[in-house]
């Protein structure tokens, strides 16, 4: 009994340490206001990457100015540039496209289309996936693509998908899909794969 108590105390202590480490990481985020001030003193601070090379400072400046002129006055673009370049250590890339998906139906449609068009692999990470009509449609498409030779990798959240049956995920595993439960509620419960992942790593 004393051994069990010691183990529980050690586990609790280790958990507290890992949480405190996470908080420390957050404190190291850059001061965006200072970065913007610094960038304003540097000539040609931002350059944009095309498919294979950097655009000239003049072309980059023209694109950024056009972006600024297309919206109401704001420093959002400068803030975005400062954070992205610091975190990624790479310039903005030309030719990207973003589509805003405002609700479930167009979002699901876009996801189904992207999965159908996949040629090499599908990396699917989700908080909730349920054994309902929508969830089964996702499962059917993922199994279909796996059978075509497209490697499918799925990470689902243990708490968010806690009401989903084990049989739902086992069907995916039986079809060759790599299925991982993120942050299992009971990390000591054995899984069919014999292991679990407790980090936010992606496939």
Q: Can you walk me through this structure?
A:
- The protein has 203 residues and is mainly alpha-helical.
- Among the domains are: 32-93, no CATH class; 104-182, 3-Layer(bba) Sandwich (FAD/NAD(P)-binding domain), CATH 3.50.50.
- Helix content is 48%, strand content 11%.
- It has seven helices and five strands; from the N terminus they run H-H-E-H-H-E-H-E-H-E-H-E.
- It has helices at 2-26, 32-40, 57-69, 76-88, 104-117, 133-147, 166-174; strands at 48-49, 92-93, 121-126, 151-157, 178-182.
- It has a three-stranded parallel beta sheet with strand order 3-4-5, covered by helices on one side. Strands 1-2 form a two-stranded parallel ribbon.
- Helix 6 (133-147) links the parallel strand 3 (121-126) and strand 4.
- The longest helix has 25 residues, at 2-26.
- The two termini are 40 Å apart.
- The relative contact order is 0.07.
- Residues 19-27 and 192-203 have low confidence and may be disordered.
């Amino acid at each position: 009994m004393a051994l069990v108590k010691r183990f529980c105390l050690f586990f609790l202590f280790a958990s507290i340490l890992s949480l405190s480490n996470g908080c420390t990481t957050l404190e190291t985020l850059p001061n965006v206001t200072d970065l913007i001030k610094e960038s304003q003193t540097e000539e040609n601070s931002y350059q944009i990457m095309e498919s294979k090379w950097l655009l000239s400072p003049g072309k980059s400046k023209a694109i950024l100015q056009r972006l600024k002129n297309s919206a109401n006055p704001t420093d959002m673009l400068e803030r975005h540039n400062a954070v992205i370049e610091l975190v990624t250590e790479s310039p903005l890339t030309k030719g990207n496209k973003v589509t805003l998906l405002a609700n479930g139906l167009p979002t699901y449609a876009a996801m189904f289309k992207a999965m159908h068009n996949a040629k090499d692999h599908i990396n699917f990470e989700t908080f909730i996936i349920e054994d309902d009509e929508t969830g089964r449609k996702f499962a059917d498409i993922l199994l279909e693509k796996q059978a075509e030779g497209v490697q499918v990798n799925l990470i689902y959240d243990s708490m968010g998908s806690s009401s989903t049956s084990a049989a739902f995920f086992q069907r995916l595993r039986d079809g060759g899909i790599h299925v991982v439960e993120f942050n299992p509620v009971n990390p000591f419960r054995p899984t069919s794969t014999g292991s679990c992942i407790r980090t936010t790593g992606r496939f």
